[in-house]
Amino acid sequence: IISMLLTSTNGAAARRMPPAKLRTVHTGVDPAPAPEPPRAAQGPVVGMVAVFIPSKGHATLLDAAALLAPRFPAVSYVLVGEGPARAALVERAKALGLEGRVAFPGPVVGAEAIAGFDILAHPSLHEGFPNVVLEGMRAGKPVVATRIAGIPEQIEDGVSGLLVEPGDPEGLARALERLLGDPARARAIGEAGRRRFLSNFTVSHMRDAYFAGYEGYQRHG
Predict the structure, then answer these.
(1) At what angle do helices 86-95 and 58-68 cross, to 10 degrees?
(2) What gap in Å lies between CA 204 and CA 199, rounded to an integer?
(3) Which residues sit opposite 29 in a β-bridge?
(4) Per residue in 47-75, pLDDT tens?
């Protein structure tokens, strides 16, 4: 039996299978990024693309933004998406003194939104193998994401992105500060992320992995 998993081999399905019988097929996305839009923001933009539900960690990003505000007053935050937690997040941004610095543009095509970011944040509390991380890497944007589920298989911490613990606004703020305070390093990490994406996570890589798995099954059962 070959188990074709679209999420991390750390999942429950994998634990029920003998390792020798497993083949992981990572999700792949189209390798062509969206074109970057005309620049509107005066300073760096930290963005997030996710449905507005508590498990996606928007509140963690807002809390981190409040911690960073004194040192990086020119940074703006764009939270793209829609969902039941949106109104509460708008109120949270106001309560944290971030009104005017956090935008909620509603549902926008993820790839188009990411093209306008300088940094992609994905502080999710629960995940599988999120496409949005791959889309950020594809666009050459430095990604800061949580160290959960399949995300460490996507990102090499400190090389092609930064990983933080879930629900830790201080840790997220420190990671964002490393990138905001060192634009050259941020660009290098973004470029490394794009190289890693092109080498591992395109649609053609997913297709080839599927075919290799089926061929192996035909040969060995």
Answers:
(1) 20
(2) 10
(3) 202
(4) 999 999 999 999 999 999 999 999 999 99
